[in-house]
Amino acid sequence: MKNIITLFVLAASILTCSVALAAPIKNIEILGLNVISRGAVLSYLPIEAGDDYNNQVSGQIIRALYKTNFFKDIEVSQEGQILKIKLTENPHIKYIDVTNYSNKVIEEKSLNQILKTMGLSQGKFFNKRQLDKLIAQLKVVYASKGYYGISIAKTIKIDTQNRVGIELNISEGKVAKISSMKITGNHVFDESELLNLFEIGQADFFIINYFTKKDHHSKVALDAGIESMKSFYINAGYLDFKVNEVKTDLSENKQSVSINIQISEGAEYKIGTIQFTGDLLSHSIEDLRKLLSFKKGDVFERKKMMQSLQSINDVFANQGYAFSDVKVATLENTSTHTIDLNIDITPNKKVYINRITIVGNTRTQDEVIRREIDIHEGGLYSNTELNESIEKIKRLGFFSDVKMQVSKLEGFKDKINLHFSVEETQTGTFSIGLSHSSSTGASLNLGVQERNFLGTGNTLNLSLSNSKAARDISFYFSDPYFTQDGHRISYGVFSKKLDASELELDEYKIDENGFGLGYSIPITKETRIGADLRASKRDVTCGETFKDNDHEPTQCASKDETELKLDLNWSNNTLNDFNFPTKGQKNSLNFSLALPVADFRYYKLDASHKSYYPLKNDLTLSLKGNLGLAQGYDGKELPFFKRYYGGGSSSVRGFDFNSLGAKYIGSDKAKGGELSFLTSVSAISPIKFMDDSKNMRISTFVDLGSISEKASGFDVDELRLSIGVAFSWLTPIGPLGFYAAQPLIKKSGDKTKTFDFTLGTSF
């Protein structure tokens, strides 16, 4: 009984004390504020005047204010019915400077975003924990890029106004280099083939490695390579492929890394049964099977499967089913190592085009772009036609980038809008001044050259060029849509003077004046045929050495002046870009006939081919070939100034301009020939080690060609071969090219040139 009475008295005392502490608050005093307003602090408090106060509330106040990160010290007390909160503010940031960091590791824009996200920017309250988190995060970023010796020194300065200045001085150290990189556990594929899937690895040839930095270790690049290897194996049918361990050993000085990747390939899986379900519309199962690039018993390749599904989807999309759904369900049999496929098709509704909008064309008229789009407002959707339209727009050469987006029309399941976004590029120049070419020397130039005149898509060239070797005055205009059906018309006038002795040719001069008219029509979306008529009067003056029996006595004595030439041409173009194509072909065939109603009588047949094939790692394989045949007729010779010449930037590089083929007796000047054979193979790549290189390309090439004096006299011994490296830059005044070449097959007497530059040449 005595114990019960004691507990009762104690409980009563505690209750009395709590009631006393829970007296209502009449006023809240906030002391120590400098930057933050009283109202802001009151908004963070879990209590207000009139509420009861006790020790529990005190803790809530302290926690709420600390959570703001605005204060480094908080005291809460009560005097009577007055609640006093004494605060010491954190200093606010006056500035934060991060110095000596490399943009190759972390860009300034990214760094500023990190600082902003972590609340470490000017005007924000300083929080030491956030600063420590920033330093730790930066070290992680550097380590992921291979900079394991990273150290960051921090300096914090607080002035009399409670403002803090923060300085972070980064000492990056040297990036760790890969001393060795090995893959073990592989049996199906060679180690070298697998290592090529990684952007990093042991150093290449030291000159190449200087630019590629292949031996610089990066965890990001290593992880990306491992993912590429996984995809490579899975695509090849090894669905049980695993990476068992990635062992990375860092040297004591943190400057070299050895990498050992242990893998397990597993078994190869093959295609089992293939079934089609869903709504096939009018398509038979056999027709759909023909769209597959695989059959039962073939090795399961995920890439082929995805391409085949896209082919099926395109068939439905080209019928207007823009949102058709083609899915595949796979059933893996681990005992037989086969995969059964069930391809399910849901066409959904047919879709029509509501609106087509174009943005980004500040100079080019909408109509110029719209006429290249093969699908129209109100028409059925077609995936193939849209892809072809995008390529046609790129082929114009007016835009550096073309994109297309599809958006659904709200409230309508069967209507969509198409949005084309273009980025215009330089299509013309107005020039006045001096230039220099390795072939024609110094030249005074004045002219307007515009492939997109006033944004109409028309071409206008008006130029005056005057050099020691040549003077050229010309006007040329072309309208590619002279009619709505895409008929092209072109016309121009010209006046030319040529001193051949300045072009590594022999001593003759030509003064020619004339005009031309052309017309072409489309046969298909990529193919055109056309005709050009060119009339001119030509005055040919031969030097004394050119008139003798060893040179051109017959032609120099000829009084031929007038020429009426008819050109019949065919062209086909499927390139995916005008300036730097990576896929497609461009072929042309041109037959020229000097009509017998004038003085000159000859014919020329010229065929050209260009093709581009995308390879891995952004490489493009380029194949080029030109074949030319020219002869006189009706008892007349082919004019010597209409012969083919070779050597130089547009021919076999590494040999001097117009130097190939037979020479005049007693002279080192080339005679030219009736037959020209030129071919080139190139591997083209963007310049990855430069930040802004979208208008630049570099290539390695092999050139092969010859000039035969007579059409019937082709001789393999006359072939010339060279290899080299070339660079092309799309500048505001046109493509600028440089090359360095080394002849591999040459003969004594050949004139070589290992370095040259050109303006107006691309790969």
Automatic annotation (TrEMBL):
Cleaved signal peptide residues: 1-22
Pfam families: Omp85 (PF01103), POTRA (PF07244)
Keywords: Cell outer membrane, Membrane, Repeat, Signal, Transmembrane, Transmembrane beta strand
A cellular component annotation (GO) from this entry: cell outer membrane
GO biological process, one term: protein insertion into membrane
InterPro entries attached to this UniProt entry: Bac_surfAg_D15 (IPR000184), BamA/TamA_POTRA (IPR010827), D15-like (IPR039910), OM_assembly_BamA (IPR023707), POTRA (IPR034746)
Gene3D superfamilies per UniProt: membrane protein fhac (3.10.20.310), membrane protein fhac: a member of the omp85/tpsb transporter family (2.40.160.50)
Places the protein is found: Cell outer membrane; Membrane
POTRA domain segment(s): 23-90, 269-348, 351-425
Domain of life: Bacteria
Keyword Transmembrane helix in annotation: no
Main subcellular location: membrane
Assembly and binders: Part of the Bam complex.
Family per similarity comment: Belongs to the BamA family.
Protein purpose: Part of the outer membrane protein assembly complex, which is involved in assembly and insertion of beta-barrel proteins into the outer membrane.
Protein name: Outer membrane protein assembly factor BamA
Species of origin: Candidatus Ruthia endofausta
